[in-house]
Fold this sequence. Notes:
By secondary structure, the protein is of the alpha+beta class. The protein folds into 2 domains: 2-222, Rhopdopsin 7-helix transmembrane proteins, CATH 1.20.1070; 233-399, Reverse transcriptase/Diguanylate cyclase domain (Alpha-Beta Plaits, 2-Layer Sandwich). The protein has 14 helices and 5 strands. It has helices at residues 2-26, 32-45, 47-54, 61-87, 93-110, 118-141, 147-173, 186-222, 233-240, 263-270, 272-289, 313-328, 356-372, 392-399, and strands at 253-260, 295-300, 303-309, 343-350, 378-380. It has a 5-stranded mixed beta sheet, with helices on both faces. It catalyses: 2 GTP = 3',3'-c-di-GMP + 2 diphosphate. This is diguanylate cyclase.
Amino acid sequence: xxxxxxxxxxxxxxxxxxxxxxxxxxxxxxxxxxxxxxxxxxxxxxxxxxxxxxxxxxxxxxxxxxxxxxxxxxxxxxxxxxxxxxxxxxxxxxxxxxxxxxxxxxxxxxxxxxxxxxxxxxxxxxxxxxxxxxxxxxxxxxxxxxxxxxxxxxxxxxxxxxxxxxxxxxxxxxxxxxxxxxxxxxxxxxxxxxxxxxxxxxxxxxxxxxxxxxxxxxxxxxxxxxxxxxxxxxxxxxxxxxxxxxxxxxxxxxxxxxxxxxxxxxxxxxxxxxxxxxxxxxxxxxxxxxxxxxxxxxxxxxxxxxxxxxxxxxxxxxxxxxxxxxxxxxxxxxxxxxxxxxxxxxxxxxxxxxxxxxxxxxxxxxxxxxxxxxxxxxxxxxxxxxxxxxxxxxxxxxxx
Length: 400
C-alpha cells in the first residue's frame, strides 16, 4: 500500500502543478478562457487522489470510491471543454453534463458488482476511455496540424487506449475484493504509475500547444500592421525573402508596389479618421484581388506592396490594373460621392537569383514613374540586367 499511496501523492502534486501552470497562461488574453478551464480540470481531477487515499480508513468507502471516480471524470470533462474552446471545436455543456451524470449513475450501479471481473472493469473504465477519445477527436477535427498538435493527439490517444488496457489489467492483476482494498492490490501500483506518466505527458503537450499559440500570436502581431491588417515591412520581408529561391517556369514571382495618390490631401480635408478608412478599404481591395498564395503589406504611410509568387510580369500587370480599377470604384465612408481615391502602381518581375531588395528598388522606380506620368496608372520596371544599382543598401535603409 505504501507504494500506491506514494504514487497517489505524486499524482496529486503533478496535477496541482499543471493547474497552477494553466492559471498562469489563463492570465493572458489568448488563450485565457481555455487555459482556465484546463486549470480547473487538473485541480478537480487531483481530488481523486485524496478520495482514494481515504478509502482504507473510512466507514463509508462507497462515498469516497464514487467521489474518486467522479473527480477524475469531471476533470476530464473540463479538459474536453477547455481544449474544445482552444481548438474551436466546442462541446455542448449540456452534453458533457449529461455524459458525466450518466457515468456517475453507472458507477453507483456497478459498485456492488464483484470487483476483478471483466464486466465491472469494463463499465468502470469505459467512461474514461470515451471522454479521452472524445477529446482526441475534437483536436483532430480542428485540422490544426503543427508538431505540437500531433504530439497532443498522440498523448490523448494513448490515454484513451490506456483505459482500455486497464480493463484487462484489473482482471489479470487483481483490483482488490472491495474498493477499500484497492490500494493494497497490484493493480493500484500499475494504474498509478502509468497514470503519473500519462498525466505528465498530456499536461506538457497541452501546455506546449498553448504556449506555442501565445508565441505565434505575438509573432504575428509584431509582423502585422494594426490599421490595415496586412503584413508590416518586417513581416513582408521575412515572409517573402525565403520564397525567392523557389524554382518556377515564370521565375520567383513579381512585386507590385503601390501608393495612394494625394493621400495627404485626404487627411487634411476630411480628417485622419477618413484617411484611416481609406487605408482599410484599400487593404481590402488588395486582399480581394491578389491570388491566394500572394502576400500583401503596408510598408508605411500610404505605400503598399504585394508579392505574387510564380507570376510573370504580364500577369502581374493584369492584377495591378484590376487593383487600380477597383480602388477608383470603391466608395469610402466619410468621403463625398464625387470624391475618388486612386493609386499608382509599379510592377517588377523578380529575376532568378535576384535579391528582394533589388527587386523592390526596381518596382519603386516604376512606381515613381507612374506618379510622374500623371498617377492612377500602372508602370513596369525594366529587367534587372538593365538597371544599375550601386546603392541598393541605401534604398533599403531609406525604406526601413
